[in-house]
Write a structure and sequence with these properties.
Blueprint: H1 12-29, E1 32-38, H2 42-53, E2 58-62, E3 80-84, H3 88-94, E4 98-100, E5 106-110, H4 111-125, E6 128-131, E7 133-141, E8 144-152, H5 153-156, E9 168-177, H6 184-190, E10 201-203, H7 205-215, E11 217-220, E12 223-225, H8 228-234, E13 237-238, H9 244-262
Parallel strand pairs: 1-2, 1-9, 2-6, 9-12, 10-13
Antiparallel strand pairs: 3-5, 4-5, 7-8, 8-9, 11-12
Helix pairs in contact: 2-4, 2-9, 7-8, 7-9
The protein binds ligand 48F.
Ligand 48F binds next to helix 2, strand 2, strand 7 and helix 8.
Length: 263
């Protein structure tokens, strides 16, 4: 005989109340963080996971409802991603299965498997994630980036005449631009002629990956760039659907941020 299931009793208002209270309590805690990461693609997730694992208070904001950026689909919608040695070590750390391709040191994994493991590891690390939130601007005090100005993505996509909703600010000691090709945080500084970016270069996989990791750095006081934002900012070649440099650049961004916080 089938056993019937009986869920714990709850009214509609109790469900709503649980959501409001849970959100408000956490949101208030994160109006000030040690590090804010803008962009939840592979580089941003990696940086968030690594920082939170070192007990840094980290908030990641992502404009979409889903996390993972370009890591979900790989190349040409074929749902496979590649990494080149030594980045398979990160797939091992995350528990992502992969195979070596015919080219030695080039590994292929399932994009959905790799991406969901990275997202889960980031959540498990204790990083706070706010999705459906878009960066509108930076907080800038005496030539130091010390926070972000954000709004709900739903608000930013409303037609102009009905979108008069002021954004809010969230403060931090450091901000990491992990917004991919857009370099959206850096562009807020460029718009005011405080920095100058170069145009991303054409495809050259071999050179691109090493350069992105090498050039991951504090681009402006208080602002670190990681992932494809590094290519946009420094005019480095693009690399297509190979993700080792994104993961290692995220790790590098964490190390830079961690060193700065210690000082
Ligand atoms: O594009 P994305 O995956 O950046 P990434 O971490 O990795 C790049 C690779 O996916 C691939 C590549 C190399 O392998 O060429 O493209 O550098 O993730 C960037 C995330 O930032 C979010 C965006 O929705 C995406 O999830 N994002 C972009 N602009 C904003 C933003 C913004 N203004 N506010 C909040 N999130």
């Amino acid at each position: 005989m089938k056993k019937s299931i009986s869920f714990a009793p709850a009214s509609e208002n109790q469900v709503t109340s649980a959501i409001v209270a849970g959100f408000a309590k956490e949101f208030e805690r994160y109006v000030e963080s040690e590090v804010i990461i803008v962009g939840g693609g592979p580089s941003g997730l990696m940086a968030a996971k690594e920082l939170a694992s070192r007990d840094v208070k980290v908030l990641l904001i992502e404009r979409n409802n889903y996390l993972g950026g370009g890591f979900w689909v790989g190349g040409f919608l074929m749902n496979k991603i590649t990494v080149r040695s030594p980045a398979e070590d990160i797939l091992d750390e995350l528990g992502v299965p992969y195979e070596e391709s015919e080219s030695e040191g080039l590994f292929v994994a399932d994009a959905t498997h790799a991406c969901s493991k990275l997202i889960a590891a980031t959540c498990d690390s204790g990083a706070k994630i706010l999705n459906m939130v878009t960066l509108e601007d930076v907080v800038l005090h005496d030539e130091l980036v010390c926070g972000v100005v954000v709004n709900w993505t739903a608000v930013t996509t409303l037609p102009g005449p009905i979108a008069c909703v002021d954004p809010i600010s969230l403060e931090s000691q450091l901000v990491i631009d992990a917004t991919g090709h857009d370099a959206a945080v850096v562009k807020r500084l460029e718009m005011r002629k405080l920095v100058k970016t170069r145009c991303e270069g054409a495809m050259w996989v071999d050179a691109a990956e090493n350069l992105v990791v090498e050039r991951t750095s504090e681009f402006y006081p208080g602002l670190i760039v990681t992932g494809m934002a590094v290519s946009t900012v420094f005019g480095l070649p693009r690399m297509g659907p190979t993700f080792g440099a994104m993961l290692l650049s995220g790790k590098r961004a964490c190390e830079i941020a961690f060193e700065k916080l210690k000082r």
